[in-house]
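Discrete fold record:
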Amino acid sequence: MKWVPEPYMLEGVRFILEHAGAGIIWDPGMRKTSVALAAIKVLKSEIKGFRTLVISPLRPCYLVWPKERDKWDEFSSLSMEVLHGPKKDEALERRADVDVINPAGLRWLFSSLWKRNEWDYDMLVVDESTRFKHSNTEQFKILKDQLSKFKRRVILTGTPAPNGLLDLFGQIYILDMGAALGQYITQYRRTYFLPTGYMGYTWVPQKNAEKKIYSRLSPLVHRISEKDHLKLPPIVGLDPPAEIEIELPPAARKVYDNLEEHLIALVDDEVVKAANAAVSSMKCRQVANGGIYTDAKSREWKKLHDEKTDAVEELLDELSGKPTIVAVDFLHDAARLIARLGKDTPYVESGMPMKKLIELEEEWNKGNIERIIANTHLIAHGLNLQGGGRAVILHSITWDLEDYEQLWRRIRRSGQKYKTWLYHIVARNTVDKAMMGALKRKAKTQRDLLDAFRAYIAEKRPKSRNTIK
């Protein structure tokens, strides 16, 4: 197919070409990958031997980058290798124009390059850059030591601050190695935040800090909003969220209340202990969903109720065959749904072979699959399901705004022709309600950030031309 970019996409390509550190912060589904490939192609045509390293979650390594390269005629000349699996050394030897690797492979890659005494990557592209939001992680530290070797650095993300402005530090550091927000996260916190809460472990922005942060970051990023550039059909159930409430049966309510208030519950004469508040919250979520693990190691579980399973089945009936993703968090959630909906219902779970996942995506987009059960975190990145998808049902509510937004944007993205439905199944008077509230609060923080970027661009930058030379 011929790549026919929209004007905003040409702006993005130009921004990458004109900035040594460029943040492409666009809503999911706005074709960031093809824009990055277009910039790579231009640079390769201008610089002999130009090579790019792309760091991406494993599923996009296989499901997005090679497929996007193969899809468009303009990018077919770019050679590409995925550095993963038993033949990754051979793939590295081939010195492709673009090498794609997941964060877990960075130690191996940099060690291999050091042993060979070679380094010829010119540009770094970090896809889904929120994976590097925490500067104290091993993968961030491994990458940090190599940043100065890249002449150009690009980050791609649609959700830069899923849990607040502190999430920005690691991602922006990749672009400018500390010039905008400081060399260390402690410096960033002291400059722009105040400690609050128990023992001062919660940080909130100081007065006018958000405006100062936006001002320092805006020159580094190109922000595009879906609503400004894509004409997508409406999404029903997002704002305000469509909440399908269920009531816990008396027996399940007793277990839930005991866990929430006393951290210990008796389930069929077995003691389930919650060692701390975090574990208690996790167990409360399980009970709200309908089951609970009785042994963490063996993953044995007990069924407590079918209220959410019933609600999913009723919604699927109402959707009358519209292709639907049912999102879950726990293995026992999926087990109960599969028992109800049929053992042939596809389930995207941890350890699913990449070949099977690719086939699932293809069959879904052909319209051959009516529903998919999927772990929220696993399906949130890498899959393009707009070809067949019409609805998302959250059987399990998630705390993570990034996973939440990326989930429903698997089907609501460029190319979607149909109205999208989004349903949240919420257990009344449980942690589900708190989680819905947390999602709304986190979303507001991120909207403030992204709106500020957009306002800066509108006021400070000249209108872009429609062609790239």
